[in-house]
Amino acid sequence: MSALLEVSGISKSFDGFKAINNLSFSINAVELRAVIGPNGAGKTTFMDIVTGKTRPDAGEVLWGDGSKSLLKMNEAQIAREGIGRKFQRPTVFEDQSVADNLIMALKADRSPFAVLRWRPTAESGARVAELAAEVGLADQLPRLAGELSHGQKQWLEIGMLLAQEPRLLLVDEPAAGMTLAEREQTTTLLCRLAETRAVVVVEHDMDFVRRLNCRVTVLHQGSVLAEGSLDHVTRNPDVIDVYLGR
Amino acid sequence: MTRLRLIACALALLLPSSLLANPALDAVIAGNLDQIEQPSRRTVEPLVAQIAATGPEGLALLQAWADRNLGLADGRAVIVDGDDVTDAVTGAPVTATPQMLRPNSGVRGVIEQALVAGALTDPDPRRRAAALDSLARGGDAEQLTALRAALDDPDPTLAARKARMERLLTIQHDPDSAARVAAIEQMAGDVGLDFRGVLNPLLATQPLVAPEPPAGANVARELTPGSDALPREAALAQLVRQGLLQPPLSRADQRAALAANITDGAVGGVPVATLSDPAARDRAYEALEAAGAVPPAATETEAQAALEANRFYDIHVEPDAAVTEAAKAAQIRAQVRLGAMRGIDLGLDALSLASIYFLAAIGLAVTFGVMRVINMAHGEFIMMGAYTAYTVQTVIADRTLSLVVALPLAFAVTALAGVVLYRLVIRHLAHRPLETLLATFGVSIALQQLAKNIFGTQARPLTAPAWLEGSITINDVIGISSIRVAIFVLALLFLALFLFIMKRTRLGLEVRAVTQNPGMAASMGINPDRIAMMTFGLGSGIAGIAGVAIGLFAQVTSEIGQQYIVQSFMTVVVGGVGNIWGTLAGATLIGGLSKVIESFNPGNTLAAQTFMILFIIIFIQFRPRGIIPQKGRAAEV
Amino acid sequence: MTRTPFILRNPSVLIVLAGLAVFTVAVTLLSQAYGTGAVPTSMVKVLGKTLCLALAAVAMDLVWGYLGILSLGQMAFFALGGYMIGQWLMYARTEGIVAAQLAQGPIPATAQELQDAVTNQIFGVVGASELPLVWSFAHSLTLQLILVLAVPGLLALVFGWLAFRSRVNGVYLSILTQAMTLALALWLFQNDSGFRGNNGLSGLQNLPGLDHVDQATLSVWFLWASAAALALFYALAAWLVSGKFGSVVRAIRDDETRVRFLGYPVEGFKLVVFTLAAMITAVAGALYYPQAGIINPAEMMPIASIYLAVWVAIGGRGRLYGAVIGAVVVSLLSSWFTGGRAPSIHLPGYVVNWVDWWQVALGLSFVLVTLYAPKGIAGVFDLFSRRGDRA
Fold first, then answer.
1. Are C370 and B435 in contact (CB under 8 A)?
2. Fewest C-beta in 10 Å: which of A31, A126, B320, C34?
């Protein structure tokens, strides 16, 4: 099975600091992957590069069956290719209703004039209701997103991601600030999502990663230190060095 | 000219013992008393020459005449020197009250010309310098000879001036072509106005139309009609001027001729109503011409034939080809050097403009770097500084002292205003840069109007101390006014002061910390609010200083800040944020570029500014973060 | 997600349109041309101009209140619209006058003579003897009307494309728009710009071919036109910001990066709104200057655009009716206070003369509004409806 995303030999430095150093990474079309690493390992920069926010100094990022290069595309084009990103802090449009937030995220033609012509249909209404129900916001649709609780915002953002129907989902520290029950819910959701698409979870909470029960990539100083099952990588002496220090 | 030379020698020899009677002079005066009393510029010259030829008494008389110290008493010329009145011929004291002569400036010019030759060897160096000045306004061949005889001079400066003047006069008046060429070649590359002034008439041309190359004329070039140098209309006009072509008929003349010949609603058989068509008008005119009702006009064929039969030349006024060749070569060299010097001069201009922008922008850059807010009232802080200096000047009369007081006071006043603005407005709008921009704009219009209410709408002068007036002149091309030099020094001073504060003090450290990462700085115990307030005060204070500087060369009005504010914004944007070197680079780029663009199209500063701004808009496309971008990940957010 | 008619979902639009209609009818009935004459013609013109300014404020609100770009160059588009229509007004009228003069002559004038005379009449003051290239279409009302939209639209498109693609935003973008305006104004100030330098275009209050209609009547016609334009574009703007498009635009204002990650071409949206707003502003300008009678480059100095922002901010940005209220209230108050008719305040020892102190008061009140009433006057309406209508 060919890889959905193939990252090869990318490097990126900020004023001499090598945030990413000759990193290679690939993920299949249907897979759940956790990326872990200590602070400054390059996790966020890695996501920035894949989503087009940052251009690498060297290397190649290939996408999909046709092995398209993502480096020539901007953020919006990459998002339209089917890469969704969940930020660490919930970023929803607080000034707008939950329904408006979801409608914006619905998979549809994104060009300005198409958006201008777009009209709500029974179908779109049903889809919004369905998504809202899925993330537990069914009775919050008319409320302003800004009035939601922190956890609800997280869920709304996940709902918006689902609405985008991405083929690859990048999730940045989803468990941060969540209660135990919410974590449980999130784990279940992520696992279910990974049944039909690729999901990359960036996390440094080992406990949460263990729950995901998936293949793990360990980043350190901008490159891959180890890869395999969680048990496999936690036995790796390099990983122990990095995580426990000496 | 030998005569004049003799006079010069005689003057040198006889001056100390000039109390002898001079019968020749006596005769000349007696014979020309009318002319002396009522001289005319046109006719006085032979008389002056005659008097000059009579020797030192004659020269002394001429000098007194020119200085309006000559009078007439009982039919005798007398020289008045304060209370002493002496006979011009005998030198004997005279008691009668003389009737003073008041020759007009034309006459005095003629007299002074005659005196120049003598004055060149005068023992008084000031007289010699004055004689050279007079020569510089125009000399002739005789004076060249006199000058050559008087080249030695004890004063090295005057000796050099004499030598230079001798070269210049040689070029203009030496009868020997080779000597003129040699003089030109010697001076080639010189950029003095005097030399260029001598070269220009040598290269002057006048147009000439002739069937074949004119014999003996010094042809500068031949022109082709219809080329850029000689458009067809100009060539035709030349032919008409020289009588080689009938004047062609202008549309207006044609119209007038047709209007004068309307009969029964038609002209030459062509109905008037159709005459809005130029072709119909031509037909009507031809018909009139055929009938003999109007004079024939040059037809297109005639004009073409005349053009083909004649050739068009530019002829040098100066007949000597060798001289014009040399002059041309010298002029090219002069122009090359002139270009280089203009470049240097431009650089100096640009530097002073850049210093002003730097002073005006530095405060803006600091506040923008630390707080990410644009203070639209910054221009009004500049104005406040200027008005502070003006107010100080009304209290302290001594210009230097008032400036010394005004600089720190302007800083204090505007820094205080900045702190107040920060405490009352900006602090409450943290992280809302656009709101800050608008709120400070509100402050800006209020302050502007307030200044109008207090100081009135008319411009208030801010006078620089005497030692700042005038300029430093290196040669005819390169010069810079002292005020601008002072502003440059001031800018350097503030750059140094600023660097010192930023790199060597606790405040600077904290400011840099807040600029780079406010969150982290706050968590390390730095109070960002206090830092922001202090930088705001500092930035505003510098604006006040800039205001004093700008006020020194521009009139102080309530709009003085507005004239610099947009350029200051540009400086910050182009330079890059959060870095003093960026501001410096921005100011240099904007100052330099404005001057360069202006030099392409002198006199049209509006166009220069337009292009300048367009350039900046395009520049931002390629360097959105400025010349020296802020570094680090913080800048990415 | 039931489909309610647009107007019903946005009652404020209905209220504004109704208010506008009542206002227009009232002014008409009080005008000298069609009514009692209680409102003098000069006042009708002031009111008509105010409607145009309100329209410009609506466009400003689209760009700033909804899209989040504080454009300090809107009045450049306004003035450009005025210049484009002014070209035709001035050319056609001068042509009429000159043709009448030439017709007095013994023989009819040629096309060239006519044009030379027109050129001399219009451009003699700046010493030009040939009709500038930019006046090539001035003879045709249709072409100049197209240019009213096309020139500002194209300028906005090019400038916006350059600025947005290099991701200049926030304060930087504001400064850049200000620079653009200043550049344009300075260029127009030149005598050889082709627009008569600082003389500007004048005599615009006379409509060519309508010499028999007096100014009292014309002023009412222009009031109608201004009101119609305001109504039309208000409704268009309200429709634009009410649907999904409006959602995306407001989302861009609040978090541009996030919108990009949703896959929306942010630059495209910005360009559409910016260009559209420029064209609306140009229409407002094209209606304003025939009522003002004269236009010159000073009208587009950056300060004018900042005042526009002030009106929108005081009225309440992010709501279209706020922009209208702000423009109407502040511009009318400004002309009242600076017109010398406002009564002075006699304090002990000092007389507050409003001509001198209005600017100070305006500036300070603007600071206060920004600080304490960021929603502006329109914020008052929130007291009546909890969430405020967002159209």
1. yes
2. A126
